From TrEMBL:
Transmembrane regions listed in the UniProt entry: none
Protein name: UPF0303 protein CP972_13580
HAMAP family linked: UPF0303
Family under the similarity heading: Belongs to the UPF0303 family.
Source species, domain of life: Bacteria
Length: 165
């Protein structure tokens, strides 16, 4: 069971989501960084008893994957679909969906991409490195899409604020 929120949080605007991406940028991203970030996400999920799967890819290679109790094989499929959105658009999967909703449509209606291959649902966030751009994605699946997104953003914020990269 996830921890109840003290007050319902509002849905972030496109501008707020874009600001997250500008803020959450690495100076480098190594295999060790993937392990540390993935381990942080697993620790957060365990504390919250969140039934999630966590995945980190860099340059087409899976560097980290964990499936916590309560997650299912479907979470791996969702991870792949959300990650493909990040890889194609260079933006968080939730932000891509939000941009379509802001235009009064949906990703599925207007992208013309196969929904079995791409999902603009929250939970996958670009790994952006200064001077290199988007090099990968960190993805969580198992909670409602906004909560997946928020978990990744919280982990990235904590990780980057720790000053290890």
């Amino acid at each position: 069971m996830t921890q109840p929120a003290s007050a319902p949080a509002s849905t972030p605007t496109v501008e707020e989501l874009e600001a997250q991406e500008r803020r959450l940028v690495f100076t480098r991203f190594t295999h060790e960084d993937a392990w540390a970030l993935g381990s942080l996400l697993v620790e957060m999920a365990r504390e919250r008893q969140a039934p999630v799967a966590v995945d980190i890819h860099r340059s087409g290679q899976q560097l980290f994957h964990a499936a916590l109790p309560g997650s299912a094989p479907d979470n791996d499929a969702w991870i792949a679909r959300k990650r493909r959105v990040v890889e194609r658009y260079g933006s968080a999967s939730y932000l891509v969906g939000a941009r379509h909703r802001a235009k009064g449509t949906t990703f599925e209606e207007s992208s013309r991409l196969d929904p079995d291959t791409y999902a603009a649902h929250g939970g996958s966030f670009p790994i952006t490195v200064e001077g290199a751009g988007v090099i990968g994605a960190v993805t969580v699946s198992g909670l409602p899409q906004l909560e997946d997104h928020r978990m990744v953003v919280e982990a990235l914020t904590r990780f980057l604020d720790a000053g290890t990269v």
